[in-house]
Amino acid sequence: MNWFKKCLIAAAICQLSSCSEEPIIQPSQVYSLDDSKPRIALVMKSLANEFFVNMASGAEAHQSANSDQYELLVNGIRNESDLAQQVALLDQMISSRVDAIVIAPADSRALVPALSRAISDGIVVINIDNRLEPEILAEYELQIPFIGPSNREGAKMVGDYVLRDSEAGDQVAILEGISAAFNSVERRTGFEEAVGAAELEVVTLQSADWDQTRSAQVTSGILQQFPDLDFILAANDNMALGAASAVRLAGKDGQVKISGFDNISAIHPLIDSGAVIATVDQFGDQLAVFGIEYALEVLTTGAMLEDRETPLELITKQSLISD
Fold first, then answer.
1. Residue 132 domain flag
2. Residue 47: what pLDDT?
3. pLDDT attached to residue 31
4. What confidence score (pLDDT) does residue 79 get?
5. Where are the alpha helices (DSSP H) in the chain?
């Protein structure tokens, strides 16, 4: 076993056993070690979010079924706002001389310089989940393909469904994720288009940073400010869960209709009970797989780097029953 392999194994064991009291980077799992096969790093956002846990599981299952084709390094950060951690993680992957990085960036702008360093080192970079800002990519003269769904279309889809029985004068609040993130902007825009189509107005737009606890706090304040609120359009399911908790504690069950986005399993009981009306499945367990397969295609064939759109599906109580 060569020196590089020993270092990788030692690093993985150290991280998995919490060698450091204050780890900079979340645990990294290494699947297979073979210098003859390409090494692909999956770099995700918060591993506390079920959406990214499912993403990692999908990637691991794909590598297991295709272990003769590539090695996989799975990594994630503590929470979705830890930009410094994700930059440090990217630098670690560059130093490890991976062949490709499939990244769900925590920020659409701040990660571009680190990704530029990776590309300068000959690493193939594939963007999933949260699209990197095209203007910043242009500044760095980078062409990084985005593999994922239309967040704007998905938000409009679920917004239209939740607002379908609205009446003139109904009040709508939007909970967005990290305001600078491209997918947050796109989902917010899709929600606003749905609200406009229903001939309603957004009474408040607030960020809950994709976080369930933060969403509960923000929603509690919104309900105090707007006691007659009718709808909450949440840009992910974690925030929908937090909003539903705040609505329940305020004694407004049945008054406020909530939407989500991501289709994590934790949202299903709330959809079944009516606490949440609908969510959108962007097939998170397959997003990383789409990125990995594209990276392999580029590495083996030199395929052109172009965006690829992936599917969306509206999830309601009826669709859950049908499944």
1. yes
2. 82
3. 47
4. 78
5. 3-16, 50-65, 83-95, 112-120, 134-139, 151-162, 182-197, 212-225, 237-249, 268-273, 284-301, 317-322
